[in-house]
Amino acid sequence: MDVDDPAPRGGGGGEPPRIRRLEESVVNRIAAGEVIQRPSSAVKELVENSIDAGASTVSVTVKDGGLKLIQVSDDGHGIRFEDLPILCERHTTSKLSAYEDLQTITSMGFRGEALASMTYVGHVTVTTITEGQLHGYRVSYRDGVMENDPKPCAAVKGTQVMVENLFYNMVARRKTLQNSNDDYPKIVDFISRFAVHHINVNFSCRKHGSNRADVHSASTSSRIDAIRNVYGASVVRDLMEIEVSDENAVDEIFRMDGFISNANYVAKKTTMILFINDRLVDCTSLKRAIEFVYSAILPQASKPFIYMSINLPPEHVDVNIHPTKKEVSLLNQERIIEMIKDAIEEKLMNCNTTRIFQTQAVNTSALTQASTQKEKGTEVSTPTGAKSQKIPSQMVRTDPRDPSGRLHTYWHGQSSNLEKKSDLVSVRNVVRSRRNPKDAGDLSSRHELLTEIDTNLHPGLLDVVKNCTYVGVADEVFALIQHNTRLYLVNVVNVSKELMYQQALCRFGNFNAIQLSEPAPLRELMMMALKDDESISDENDKEKLEIAEVNTEILKENAEMINEYFSIHIDQSGNLTRLPVVLDQYTPDMDRLPEFALTLGNDVTWDVERDCFRTAAAAIGNFYALHPPILPNPSGNGIQLYKKNKDCMASGERDNDSTNTDEDEIDQELLAEAEAAWAQREWTIQHVLFPSMRLFLKPPKSMATDGTFVQVASLEKLYKIFERC
């Protein structure tokens, strides 16, 4: 019904508007817009009709996202010739005859509105043949009635429904669907879900004119095979079967079976396929409950995969609550959701003892080619629909997975076997294993120091650290990283020292340990460190011995506390036997152990708890930091330092042929040791330090001004320079 133009608001003595009955064509068009909301709605209705018709093969062809053409063909039982005149009238159906039939309905369709609605918003053509007929019939419909009498035609068993020019008479609706490709992924998603559930039906879905189907599933006897055919083996690998039913067999209200992903599954979006009594539906409350369970075991960015088929008595399901039948109402819905939630939680807890992380070799040439094509062909759409090129000076071309973007790939020579080791797997394992730390570190002084780290955090540097791409080692101290369009030099020593300090406080009381092959006497370690101390003369050995003995006694007195909090074990004889694992996959440079022992005894403030923890953590941070190796870098002219003739080194003479040193003049054993040490350091920086830095480091504000992070290039500024040339 409709009303005349209303009277002006705010009162007035005008007569009330007259109520009148709308024309049937207007009513039908309004109803059609509610049932067929978009092209994917039409496809869903037609596929459900095909399944209700007992089809074993359903083929879907779509053009321009369904706006130009939707064609659904099946091999079902077909439509009787005498039923064709009323086929597309509203509320004509073969699924029920009385309202009471809704209580036991098992078919997906029942209202008789879908085909009628399509004829009011598009041009519908039906071709059908039933078993035993010599030929089929083709007839076109518009506004619910036949445009002409059915015409005999050649046909294969079943029915073909073709919907053309969808929403041709609904300007506003067509404008909202202006991008014709928006709905095709939704159509593919619908067909994929049907293919997983109806394993005895062959489904295919393709774009018009395409030889390749985007969905192609063959009938199978196994649900897991159907999921593999549609979603791939990578999904199936991480799925677990689950079954739930009412424990009370006398009053059994439901039974559920399906597959859910385990803790190893990683996806950016939740995939939930839910069928209730073989009807594809959505249930927001069930989905929210399941996602809540998974949030306790999955990383924040990961989402689960769920397939569920729930069977209930038909009288417990109200299917008539939504225009497109996408939702249903269940009796005892809260109880059912709670039982499913508890079953999933129990299943996940039982499988959460191990985690698997898949690694694969990177195809450098393929990544480079794809990156090049992406640079050349990347376009963005403006609000007006026109395409414009990205601004070159704002394009970031470095793929962190692509080794071709790193400096060491351009250096000639044999590649180190160290690069073949996995980098992030162990780091990620540690992240998860330490999410629920022990209570040993629940001390106020330690928490104050952690709060101080959080308070002193530099947000800008944190973004750089979290989202940077490692480029390569620049020299003995600095490494290069890229963040967005900017290139930075990073002081590896400073960054690693701060990272180790923070990790020493974070892992407080929860360290793993490195067992020394032989106990190291603290007094001898300190004597070695004091010999290198320039502030004490070499002749004063008595003073050095006294310092070493005093500091050894201090460490022995505090040995129990050091072992409990930092896993540094000192036995009763004053021997160092164990060191903490501050960062997994990393062992500190043992050449600096004497200096560490002296610092631990001499520089730690033992009297005040907070200062004790801070100075001890600082000593550990300095020892575990990635200092340059003791042996000089043998690359370039550094090889001259490994000549056997030391007098030649001392003279400082540099001939033009100095770089062409004969191998006989070089101490090969010492050179090999130096090369191994520097190669190990470079590998550790790339595969241990920077991945750990992205996960754990909270850069303090001081790093923005003390030269730890230095911006050396900006793509935007470089483009300005090149534009002037």
Outline type: elongated
| N→C terminal distance | 72 Å
User: Radius of gyration in whole Å, from Cα?
Assistant: 37 Å
User: Number of DSSP helices?
Assistant: 22
Mean pLDDT: 78
**In terms of per-residue confidence, which ranges show pLDDT below 50 for 5 or more consecutive residues?**
374-389, 412-425, 427-441, 646-661
In terms of topology, how is this protein built?
Blueprint: E1 2-3, E2 19-20, H1 24-35, H2 39-52, E3 57-63, E4 69-74, H3 114-121, E5 123-129, E6 136-142, E7 145-146, E8 151-153, E9 158-164, H4 171-176, H5 184-197, E10 202-207, E11 215-217, H6 223-231, H7 233-236, E12 239-245, E13 255-261, E14 271-276, E15 279-280, H8 284-295, E16 305-311, E17 317-318, E18 329-330, H9 333-351, H10 364-377, E19 379-381, E20 387-389, H11 424-433, H12 444-455, H13 459-466, E21 469-473, E22 478-483, E23 486-491, H14 492-506, E24 512-521, H15 522-531, H16 541-557, H17 559-566, E25 569-570, E26 575-581, H18 593-602, H19 609-624, H20 646-651, H21 668-696, E27 709-714, H22 715-724
Parallel strand pairs: 3-10, 14-16
Antiparallel strand pairs: 1-2, 3-4, 4-9, 5-6, 5-9, 6-7, 6-8, 10-11, 12-13, 13-16, 14-15, 17-18, 19-20, 21-22, 22-23, 23-27, 24-26, 25-26
Helix pairs in contact: 1-3, 2-5, 5-6, 8-9, 12-19, 14-19, 14-21, 15-16, 15-18, 16-18, 18-19
